[in-house]
Amino acid sequence: VGASSDPTSLANRNFTKPPIDLGYHGKIYPIGYTGGEIFGLKIYPSLGEVPGPVDHVICSIPAEATPQLMRECVAKGVKVVHIFSSGFSETGKEEGLQLEQELVGIAREGGIRIIGPNCIGIYCPSWGMAFAGSITRESGRVGYFSQSGGNSRELTDMALVRGIRFSKVISFGNAADLDEVDYLEYFSQDKETEIIAIYIEGAKRGREFLSLLKETTPRKPVVIVKGGGTDAGERAVSFHTGALAGSDKVWDALCRQTGAVRAYSMEEMADLILAFSLKPPIPGVRAGIVSLGGGAGVQATDDCERAGLLVPQFPTEIQRELRKAIPQAGTSVSNPLDSSPFVAWDPPQFLETIRIVAACDQIDLVIVHIPVDLGFYRSSGPKAVMGQVKAAVKASETCDKPIALVLRASGSRQSSNVVLEAERECQRAGVPIYPSVSHAASAIAKGTQYYRSRRD
Amino acid sequence: VGASSDPTSLANRNFTKPPIDLGYHGKIYPIGYTGGEIFGLKIYPSLGEVPGPVDHVICSIPAEATPQLMRECVAKGVKVVHIFSSGFSETGKEEGLQLEQELVGIAREGGIRIIGPNCIGIYCPSWGMAFAGSITRESGRVGYFSQSGGNSRELTDMALVRGIRFSKVISFGNAADLDEVDYLEYFSQDKETEIIAIYIEGAKRGREFLSLLKETTPRKPVVIVKGGGTDAGERAVSFHTGALAGSDKVWDALCRQTGAVRAYSMEEMADLILAFSLKPPIPGVRAGIVSLGGGAGVQATDDCERAGLLVPQFPTEIQRELRKAIPQAGTSVSNPLDSSPFVAWDPPQFLETIRIVAACDQIDLVIVHIPVDLGFYRSSGPKAVMGQVKAAVKASETCDKPIALVLRASGSRQSSNVVLEAERECQRAGVPIYPSVSHAASAIAKGTQYYRSRRD
Prior knowledge:
The structure is a homodimer.
Chain A: H1 10-22, E1 37-38, E2 41-42, E3 56-59, H2 66-76, E4 80-83, H3 94-110, E5 113-115, E6 121-123, E7 142-146, H4 149-161, E8 166-171, H5 180-189, E9 195-200, H6 206-216, E10 222-226, H7 231-240, H8 248-258, E11 261-263, H9 266-277, E12 287-291, H10 294-307, H11 316-325, E13 337-338, H12 341-344, H13 347-359, E14 365-371, H14 372-376, H15 382-398, E15 403-408, H16 413-429, E16 433-434, H17 437-455
Parallel strand pairs in A: 3-4, 4-5, 7-8, 7-9, 9-10, 10-11, 12-13, 12-14, 14-15, 15-16
Antiparallel strand pairs in A: 1-2, 6-8
Helix pairs in contact in A: 2-3, 4-9, 5-6, 9-17, 10-17, 11-13, 13-15, 15-16
């Protein structure tokens, strides 16, 4: 509702086009007072005039007009209304709050559930629902609900590039009706969802949220970014979704008590989702590092230890085997392993090196650290780097320890292109790629904490 | 020395070609027993046979052969020898150590200074020296010396993409002769150098290094990444450059006592260099945030406060002015400012918004936060984002507060391309770009600490 014959309008770009592009599994009825056509579909002047039944309504009209629409939805037998419109309780003004309450009143009486208001709704690839164009149809095992529309898009965009796929993403805004407890309950039971990610600014039903979290985390890892943890952030929240934010300490305690994992940015959320995607689940904190260059290895080791991973020395027999695989002088066969350029850029040798490290029983996981731009100093350039990536993927397929890749790139066009190519290669194999050892190590260390507390 | 007629050899790729590409300001004599030609230059079979005087020798031959070469250098009147070769004290073996001492003995007796061994030497764009191909000729104000060749390349590559330019970069490896004190002394006095960056694994002359740092920091900011601060990292260092690493605590104390700024990764080093490039120097910690989207603003505020910046509310008169510039509902005119899409993607309005925030006397600096991929949901796509970037650059030219840009990008090809275009735009204007608010805020907060301690 709010469609028009202008294909560039906000409502059409955000809501009419994406489900068409994604192959929505039901019927789509654009509704707008202009009438006419859009993307080959007839525009109905009102909801009442739509011929068949309507389950789900997306509302993109001014706030003042929403109560009238809600009444029409009741009359039509609609089940769920997603309200994109803003201008409700988040304004902090009395009129906005009253309008929101009026809306909820009509919906409850008519047996309708509300998503929002002030949110962008649902992305469900398997059903062909989306809040954005050019988004993948591939479904995955991450369920994500976010109180911010921008942050739901930000994590989705970033995660898709990094090979993460979603079961469903829900942006839920002011949570006037359906709230954090309802969404958590859904994802907790949803068979498609194995990992749950949450961006939340404030809980409406704190106690129930806590007990449901406690019940969920033994089965599925839950990662939470809490917006407005600081004082000024809390003030910012009051202008955004109008939620009562609650301090950082409260949310730390909540995560500790429930076994949820706290992240501090969308980027860290993606890092953690990748850590929870590692196969097999990370058994412990002892990392074997396969690196290239002494300085990079030193830095990688510091990053691991600062994040809470251990970098134990390799036993003598492993060092002896490695020395056979890496006969060149000037390299270290201890942990971190400084594989020489001759080894790193020779895929079979690099594969063999990773295998030897992975087979070491002092090691729980392997971090393969690839400095992308260094590869460019070699005549074979990007090919040399992709050879390393493919060797690491191959190693992950044949060994029983989780392998995480780190691709350090300068951000130049050439390096960014190689990273994207590597992402595609690794996504197929389910091997995570991190932009730095420090990102990888922090996420993996938090991941092991989760598994440990689950075992306890 | 170590050149051959094979253009793909390591010595030629690393050392013969780069200065030719960069327009070296003197004569280049490739030397190698093969004779013949390389890149149009005659290869001399030995140093003695070079017709003119030789100031600087780059040595890329096996370690065992270096003492003989050093004697030839003495005979030829060479001033400096940069030894790329490894196989010296960093091996941890007695033979390696003895070879290094022999080399230093010959050099000292003959009045020669050594850079290295086990390092890639000098990048000096103004003189046309380089350790890598496809590197810019543009000179800058950052002097960088690094005990790791890989890390000297990594920071250089990454920093160049981010608009940072160098006076000189020196990779100095084992520091057998010239060491951290010599290089710091040089950069401390070098007129081209205004900011000093250091990657160090262990100090040979700790006391002198400390007192020289103390003397330098009141005039030039010094940023230090210490490799091997953790226990396992220290062990890794012993395999790399053979340095005695020293613990994290010792280096924390050193930085506190001397006013040097400590960073923990190459990326943070680049972040800090950009913070010290802000014009005018950051006067205080009160940040005004211009963002797009409520959730992004909330996150930006949390990131700032966690890093030690403040996000004070705007006074009523500023809010009133902003409300005039941003009449649309659903946006916040408090700090963080949630500029609506209508404002953000309209360059003159966006410029006006930044100007109003910058003029607020409760604010020391402005952080302009641009979610890149959000711009793509608009039909004008990349153009909308570049409009924001250009408005921010224009604002920085006309207002007297430092402005830092944050470009949040998913890493998709389209978003990476826009970031690169923005980097070029901003480099010309000297406006720094950060990949996240948390990167920007940490670097700026550390920067203000430096300026505060300098004032005290």
